[in-house]
Amino acid sequence: MKKHKEFELKTTTEMKVFILFLMDNIGYPLEHETIIDILQENTDDITLEYDECLRQLAASEHLLFDEVDGVRYYMISDKGRLVAAELYDNLDEGFRERSLRIAIRHISLSKSGARINSYITVTESKRYRVTMEAFDKYGEIMSTSVTVNSLAEAEQIKRNYDAKPDGVYRGVLFSATGRLEYIS
Q1: Cα–Cα 20 to 30 A to 150, which of 18, 29, 67, 116?
Q2: pLDDT higher at 6 or 152
Q3: What's the pTM value of the predicted model, to 2 decimals?
């Protein structure tokens, strides 16, 4: 069954911008098959043009790729990130939002190679502040703190974040955006 679409990718350039938009938002390498699945789910189109767009983006060094055990992985390059940031607004805003809801399932701190940090400090009122941070190669992607009454609770929060940073990250994104997709 076809999804209702108010916006379609009509040109190769729009497809390339869309691919860069998705890769930039996911933030880590994806295998070829996963990229094609995401593209098809977003556009309801099955086309060989996706492969050609990926080849052209790699040839122009907007995407980087590597092949491991016969599986090709792609990720956005710094050049692709800079160029694409200028072009994202050419895509329909509603289409971008719907596309992000689908891509959210692929966002992961651990897969992105993010560094995490957490620490506990005692506040002036003798409560305990737990600060949880995450950084990727471009800088800080999350910094949040919660203050609790007991050291034991603060230590549990810190242990949970250190063990499962993705869950906390997704929870913060869900709370900040209201998008249920972050917790599914």
Answers
A1: 116
A2: 152
A3: 0.62
